[in-house]
Write a structure and sequence with these properties.
Two copies of one chain form a homodimer. Chain A is an alpha/beta fold. Helix content of chain A is about 35%, strand content about 15%. The first copy, chain A, is built from 22 helices and 23 strands. In chain A, strands 1, 2, 3, 4, 5, 6, 13, 14, 15, 16, 17 and 18 form a twelve-stranded mixed beta sheet that branches. In chain A, strands 19-20-21 form a three-stranded mixed beta sheet. In chain A, a hairpin with a 5-residue loop joins strand 1 and strand 2. In chain A, helix 4 crosses helix 20 and helix 16 packs across helix 17. The relative contact order of chain A is 0.16. At the A-B interface, helix 7, helix 8, helix 9, strand 8 and helix 12 of A face helix 7, helix 8, helix 9, strand 8 and helix 12 of B.
Chain lengths: ~625, ~625
């Protein structure tokens, strides 16, 4: 896009100012200008204010014939709790490709969760001179997708408990009569969603009055086993006191209390459906097929059995359209789906990537981010997301920092909110070299998929040349296609030009087809073990509960789904403090759940919290609005 | 607006098709065309798709000099559970004024809650040929205001429990150190929101290290009394199992369990703040001043004490802008704030009304809806909303139906979802006449505010002329300025032309100033008793808990606030089955709470549920999407 009208030259300042100050210092272009550069006409998108637009899925039909651009996934080494700048590198790389290397490029990012934004971590728009803007709009509400997920998730949750409640007080016939009320002429009928259930039950009758008492019972009584309910409520807030709760304690609920809990919204199966779906019709089926638990007879009960799959789709109908934004240097960004690759799959959406690949076309680049270390984000990108999308990446970027490599080499613990130890601020080549075992394993694991691996060394001002060289050497010897030092945080796209060139070469020189880590037609346990082996584990240990669930899901016919491990992001193993490249450990599978609508089985590796908490002094202490200008202040 | 370019002539069909079919049969205008008719330029609003726009509050500064239009509030008689068409009449009246009577007009409606939309009641866009379109966008998400309220409400809730938790494990000094972490130079400091608390505590020191141990304790330890916490979590879903819950049962929460519950989002104090605020700066103060409970010493604890008032404002910064939509006949609508005048104040927002009054200007009309019967919606409109806005209505419309009047006259119970009794479908003038006592009391109560009252008889096809005449006669003799039969459901604006003419005359012939039902400077109890008397009560009975709360709020200096009664909408009294115009009853006040940020005291009259439930067959059974066209089906 050398001829692009939207590229904006940055005036960089040193030392680098606060993220929000950089973001506020640049006047974003009206998003219709960004859209126009992508050859999108006004009927291809809906504006949401001046700087955001939802790109309509219908664009896919129009660009069907065209070829795809190169497809680049950005993962990382095992991170410190501070993060190693993966989003920042993703944005910086795209600014380099678009604003300095004359390439058509689209960045595909995930919508941040408001939990961390107001909690510990802050926002996720990138940082320094590599950001998505307006960063406050990116970090807050965006175009409402996560709110839609929360609403849909919780409507289903309410439907479950209320159904159990109503079934407990009504006869089979009364249930049928309530479900199929008479019309003005006094006739009862099934509606569309009921025919889905009738079909599943093998009942071909079309009138309620024709059902036998046995069939009435089968149809009208879901007979949900309350202990089997895996569907939890969600909220996009770090509310630790909702992790485990007892519901139904009001007098009208007649003692039907039950223990359950809330997860953070991005961990909802509906987020996974949004990320993996390919069309409105596909989303309708996936949402209807979500399994919330079992009947007392052990049959899986779905959202459609509860009559709510259509309503969930209606709630999600706008969320399926990705949101167009821009980087500081005026290159386009599609924001879609959500983070948390530890407890979810944490990749941006299939539809955003598909639209982007067509919009950039052959020779262009789509750079998509996968959450956390390559052991979880990139692994899920390959084995789940690419499997469902049919898309083939050419290059995987692995982001590394000297800071994280020193930690893996044996440096002291890094804690968010506490000052960094001196070891991280002064030269120590040996520590860096020792830590490269972590990088090396991520490289070889990622290379095994058949893509070229480029290591992006996200440079900090305290890094020494000798340290940086050590990483380069280790990366190349571990099989990386290239390893490049980047300064996009301090310099914007200009600081990632070398990375851009390396990525381009990597994409143009792919010699192998895409290979998955495991085939789908082996058993659930064999799949889990294949992934565990890639972590360095010597074996897998299943709890009694995990065994029971695996047996049940296999019996229910769900064993051909891919696997989405819920595992700590802080180690290849299940123990966050095991840095570097641990091996020989036995991976404990505490429980196994299933996201049948999204399309994967998810084993819980050890104890994983699905609802973060707030610290004593959360980020929100600094966040306020300048009521004169209307500008947000204190957002990081 | 006879010269208006946006007015659209309807082709009406008989019998009246389903609401969604009528809504889908009309192609809405691009919302920028509606905006242009109101003399709004593109920098006055943000588009949200093609048919919705948020009108920016900054418009108020530009139109400050101009005069206001006439201000009309629409209330109703005590309704049946089916609703008597108050929104429909509001829309129909505006279609008449705008499309047939050449008036500049803006309709101000409240955003519906998604709870009822998917539960029993369905949407709230009006009905028949008097609707806001696109009705699916109106009923779903809209521009995200209620989602923003949910997010803000629950961030505050999480902040409360987490603060209690962290205070329980840390010394005063450790809390201070966490709250004021050292910067890179090792210096600790207070931030802006902390100075608010220091000021409230009367501490004028500016550095953390200067505080005495006593001051450290006062500042850093909120010492919240868990039993006093009135702040509940919210969700915009009918989830009855969340009415009463126990939280904090996870092992990490160390046994700090607590009983609490969820309300429906529109009952959040933040919704009330949104409705009553007048500017961004005013909203910042109100949100920061919200009281969540007391310290163990009995001092009120606010959102700003918790450090979160600024963050709440940031979450609400777009929600403060009302949403522009259109009626079926192309007249403009501003949608803002929320419903549920029984448990909230249930009026649309002050800012929407203020903007609208300037946009229509002198001679134009702003028609704003107040929830449920005039005993609650209109009463709160007058005594709370107009008190805060300083605006003066000229006319109050009271919507009545033959159906509801027959119920008040002694007709059999009306139950949502069950067929209507024959009494409601055949002529019975005596029943109607008997029921007019309800209408008469609403008229005299409303007239007492100094406005002219116009009764809108929302006609159904089963109503007889004799029945309709009986209502007209009763209304006039009860002091109504006029009483008009309307057929806007069947005919659109054309069916409400007579109503429009009557309203215009009523506005032009106001002879009295606005009078409130009670002054602010009397005691809380005297104010409650003034309202109870207007209900027909002979006295008020306070529970021990209510007495305690009134005493506490009076001591805390909150006794000068207006009163927002939480009372059933189904009777003037606290007993839903007491129809007509009950009198001589003693009104029981079960509890008294306070919305200090929003600015009112709210007594709970008897048992009021703040979280609706779902029936056996909720509306969602019929709601789905046509995946080929993308259109929503089955929404009612």
């Amino acid at each position: 896009m050398g001829s692009s009208n939207t590229v904006r030259k940055l005036q960089v300042v040193s030392p680098v100012p606060a993220d929000i100050d950089i973001a506020n210092s640049v006047q974003p272009l009206h998003i219709s200008e960004i859209a126009q550069e992508l050859n999108l006409s006004p009927n291809h998108y809906d504006l949401y204010g001046k700087y955001k637009a939802k790109v309509l899925l219908s664009v896919l039909d129009e660009v069907k014939g065209g070829g795809d651009g190169y497809y680049v996934v950005v993962g990382g080494i095992t991170p410190t709790p501070l993060g190693e700048g993966k989003s920042t590198t993703t944005v910086g790389l795209c600014q380099a490709l678009g604003a300095f290397l004359d390439k058509k490029v689209v960045t595909c990012l995930r919508q941040p969760s408001q939990g961390p934004t107001f909690g510990i971590k802050g926002g996720a728009a990138g940082g320094g001179y590599s950001q998505v803007i307006p960063m406050d709009e990116f970090n807050l509400h965006l175009t409402g997708d996560i709110h839609a997920i929360t609403a849909a998730n919780n409507l289903l949750a309410a439907a479950i408990d209320t159904r159990v409640f109503h079934e407990s007080t009504q006869s089979d016939r009364a249930l049928l009569n309530r479900l199929c009320p008479p019309n003005k002429e006094g006739k009862r009928s099934f509606n569309d969603i009921m025919f889905r259930r009738l079909k599943k039950l093998g009942i071909s009758k079309t009138k309620p009055e024709d059902l036998t008492p046995q069939e009435v019972k089968k149809f009208a009584r879901l007979d949900i086993d309350s202990d089997s309910i895996t569907w939890r409520r969600v909220m996009d807030v770090n509310d630790r006191f909702l992790r485990k709760i007892t519901i139904g304690q009001g007098p009208e609920e007649k003692g039907m209390v039950r223990e359950t809990g809330f997860d953070i919204s991005v961990a909802s199966e509906i987020m996974a459906v949004l990320a993996l779906t390919t069309s409105l019709a596909d989303m309708r089926e996936r949402l209807g097929n979500m399994v919330i638990g079992n009947s007392k007879a052990g049959e899986p009960i779905t959202a459609d059995d509860l009559g709510v799959g259509g309503a969930l789709t209606v709630l999600m109908k706008d969320a399926i359209n990705p949101t167009l934004m821009q980087t500081l240097e005026g290159t386009p960004v599609l924001v879609h789906a959500g983070p948390f690759a530890n407890i979810a799959h944490g990749n941006s959406s299939v539809v955003a990537d598909k639209i982007a690949l067509k919009l950039v076309g052959p020779g262009g680049f789509v750079v998509t981010e996968a959450g956390f270390g390559a052991d979880i984000g990139t692994e899920k990108f390959m084995n789940i997301k690419c499997r469902y999308s049919g898309l083939t990446p050419q290059c995987a970027v692995i982001v590394a920092t000297i800071r994280a490599l020193k930690m893996h080499g044996g440096g002291p613990e890094v804690v968010a909110g506490k000052p960094l130890d001196r070891a991280y601020l002064t030269e120590n080549v040996a520590l860096v070299e020792a830590g490269c075992v972590n990088l090396a394993r991520h490289i070889s694991n990622t290379k095994a998929y058949g893509v070229n691996v480029v290591v992006a060394i996200n440079m900090f001002s305290t890094d020494s040349q000798a340290e940086l060289n050590a990483v380069r050497t280790a990366a190349i010897s571990a099989g990386a296609f290239d390893a490049v030092i980047c300064t996009h945080h301090a310099h914007g796209g200009k600081g990632a030009v070398d990375l851009g060139i390396a990525v381009q070469k990597a994409c143009e020189n792919v010699s192998q087809p895409l290979k998955f880590l495991y085939p789908l037609d082996i058993s659930i346990k064999e799949k889990i073990e294949a992934i565990a082996t890639s972590y360095g584990a010597s074996g897998v240990e299943y709890s009694e509960q995990a065994e029971k669930q695996i047996e049940m899901y296999s019996k229910q016919g769900f064993s051909t789904l891919p696997i989405c491990m819920a595992k700590t992001q802080y180690s290849f193993s299940h123990i966050p403090s095991e840095k570097g490249a641990p091996s020989g450990f036995v991976l404990p599978i505490r429980d196994v759940r299933a996201s049948i609508g999204a399309g994967f089985i998810y084993p819980l590796v050890g104890t994983m919290s699905t609802m973060p908490g707030l610290p004593t002094r959360p980020c929100f202490y600094d966040i306020d609005i300048d009521t004169t200008t209307g500008k947000v202040i204190g957002l990081s």
